[in-house]
Amino acid sequence: MPIEFEGVSFSYGEGGSKAPALQDFSWSLEDGGFAAIMGRTGSGKSTVLRLLCALAKPDSGHISIDGRDVFSSLPRRELRKMMGFVFQFPEYQLFETTVMREVCFGMKNLGFPKAEMEENARWAIEKMGFDFEAVRGVSPMALSGGQKRRVAIASVIASKPKILLLDEPTSGLDPAERRKFADILRSLNSEGTTIVMVSHNSEVVCETAKDLLVLKDGKKWKEGPVCDLFSSSLSAAGILPPPAFALSSFLRARGVDLPPCVREEDFLSSLLEAQRRRKNGSR
Ligand SMILES: Nc1ncnc2c1ncn2[C@@H]1O[C@H](COP(=O)(O)OP(=O)(O)OP(=O)(O)O)[C@@H](O)[C@H]1O
Ligand SMILES: [Mg+2]
After folding, report:
1. What is the C-alpha separation between 29 and 13, in angstroms, rounded?
2. pLDDT per residue over 84-127, tens digit each?
3. Cβ(178)–Cβ(242) under 8 Å?
4. Ligand 1 centroid from CA 23, angstroms
């Protein structure tokens, strides 16, 4: 579902204490897109997500989904059904006694029929990398931090929202969990879910998102395909590319035949491959 922000401004607080969190912000994302939002702390990233899911109302401008204004044309219930929001550290919001109950909670509130709820819960729990039968009766409190995060995310994707908003979904995860999670996001997006993800992690962004929006002081600073933007300097917004990406770009600019790499192991094997080609060519 296409998303559009048109001249949106928003400030927290009342009267004299108002500080602009977002100023004259226009941005759009096509149906089935996957955009990452990056920028320094306090630049307005979470505010964009909060406005999009109608947790806050713009002071001016319009936000629409599929051409329908989020505030005037989309009933709340319909919005809740089409949009899933994974807050930062969602595992702190787990409260049910079993993983199955936890994952079904949101669907119950949305009025899903029992059979569909159970089928979706199985799908979501397996999608997040669990053995459904082994984990369904376990207390979420008995799981590790990374496992809890995956249960929390399962509970959001279980209702199969068409749009998924994620605020720093990989913070606090170890590198292996981050990569597993990146795979899951890519797969959800390839199945048609439109994704907007706030992240400080440039490796995760390069591995998942197609487009990048960079905010600076509550304003849109840059936008474009992830690879193009990371090839330019984003340091003024406090963003550095993944080290392997920076090294491969540096060497490519100096004539070494290397593809853009995100992971260190891909960079090293591409480098060895380039060296082998060079040796063969000079024989
Ligand atoms: N509930 C609030 N009340 C008042 N001001 C707020 C509130 N939430 C955010 N702000 C302010 O709005 C601005 C944008 O905040 P926002 O949370 O969108 O930033 P962010 O880019 O998500 O930062 P971070 O990377 O630290 O999460 C900041 O100046 C922040 O201090
Ligand atoms: Mg934030």
Report:
1. 29
2. 999 888 888 899 999 999 999 999 999 999 999 999 999 999 99
3. no
4. 13
Q: Tell me how far apart the alpha carbons of residues 65 and 117 are, in angstroms, rounded to a whole number.
A: 26
Give the residue, by CA position, lying nearest to ligand 1 atom 5.
12
Q: Which residues line ligand 1 (CB under 6 A)?
A: 12-13, 21, 39, 41-47
Q: What is the pTM of this model?
A: 0.92
- From the CA of 10, the nearest ligand is 1
Distances (CA, A) of 67 to 94, 129, 176, 182: 34, 35, 39, 30
CATH superfamily of 3-94+159-233: P-loop containing nucleotide triphosphate hydrolases (3.40.50.300)
Max CA distance (Å), the chain: 75
- The protein residue whose alpha carbon is closest to atom 16 in ligand 1 is 44
Q: What residues pack around ion ligand 2 (CB closer than 5 A)? A: 46
Helix, strand or coil, per DSSP, at residue 136: coil
CATH 3.40.50.300 residue ranges for the chain:
3-94+159-233
Residue 19's identity, in one-letter code, is A
Identify the burial level of 277 via C-beta atoms within 10 angstroms of its C-beta, where 0-12 means exposed, 13-18 middle and 19 or more buried. exposed
Atom 6 (ligand 1) nearest CA: 12
